[in-house]
Design brief:
By secondary structure, the protein is mainly alpha-helical. It folds into two domains: 1-107, Rna Polymerase Sigma Factor, Chain: A (Orthogonal Bundle), CATH 1.10.1740.10; 109-190, Winged helix-like DNA-binding domain superfamily/Winged helix DNA-binding domain (Arc Repressor Mutant, subunit A), CATH 1.10.10.10. It contains ten helices and no strands. It has helices at 11-21, 24-33, 35-46, 49-66, 75-94, 96-107, 112-134, 137-148, 153-160, 164-189. Helix 3 (35-46) packs parallel to helix 5 (75-94) and helix 4 packs across helix 5 (75-94). It is globular, with a radius of gyration of 18 Å. The N and C termini lie far apart (49 Å).
Length: 190
């Protein structure tokens, strides 16, 4: 079966094809879409490029081995949670996660306004990660490369094949769309 003509399909369509015939190549198309995003997410948690790359591969294996067990509606959100949980487990296994929590707890002032500020900041980071998933592929890629991987416009253009104007436009529009999405999330919480 020639899958090259299916890259334009939406996640739900590709997911349905996978559920219908069990062909892992459908998953390959889906996972390829989110590789850069997953790498950025894993870098955020693990703070090490090699560990983050390994984590992305391990998440891919987990998805391939377990997706058939679940009826997933929103692949991006599910994949995000799988990756996040994987990274947190790696940190916990290394003792970093609990150590960081203990250090924060010990060092954090007991002032409830400071604690609330920390909680709010964590919630904003969480919402920002989810909002990033809502961007189109071009904006996601450019925003991730620019802000998370600290690439220049020129480096992004070389990496993606986009023109400098496309890179600039994708970053500006992506940033604006992230702000709008965050505002929507915050509005819904009220």
């Amino acid at each position: 079966m020639d899958l090259r003509n299916h890259h334009h399909k939406e996640d739900k369509q590709l997911l349905q094809h996978f559920y219908d015939d069990g062909n892992n190549e459908w998953l390959g198309i889906l996972l390829q879409r989110y590789t850069v995003l997953l790498l950025g997410l894993c870098m955020k948690y693990l703070k090490n490029e090699e560990e983050a790359k390994d984590a992305v591969q391990q998440v891919f294996l987990k998805v391939i081995n377990e997706l058939h067990k679940y009826k997933v509606e929103y692949f991006k959100s599910w994949l995000y949670m799988v990756a996040k949980n994987h990274c947190l487990m790696k940190l916990r296994d290394k003792g970093k996660y609990t150590q960081e929590i203990n250090e924060k707890t010990m060092a954090a002032p007991q002032d409830t306004s400071d604690i609330n500020l920390i909680k709010e900041k964590d919630k904003t980071l969480e919402l920002l990660s989810i909002a990033l998933l809502q961007l189109n592929k071009e904006q996601q890629l450019c925003v991730t490369l620019f802000y998370l991987e600290k690439k220049s416009y020129q480096q992004i253009a070389e990496h993606t094949g986009y023109s400098m104007m496309q890179v600039k436009s994708n970053i500006q529009n992506g940033k604006r769309n992230l702000k709008l999405q965050l505002a929507r999330f915050q509005q819904n919480e009220r």
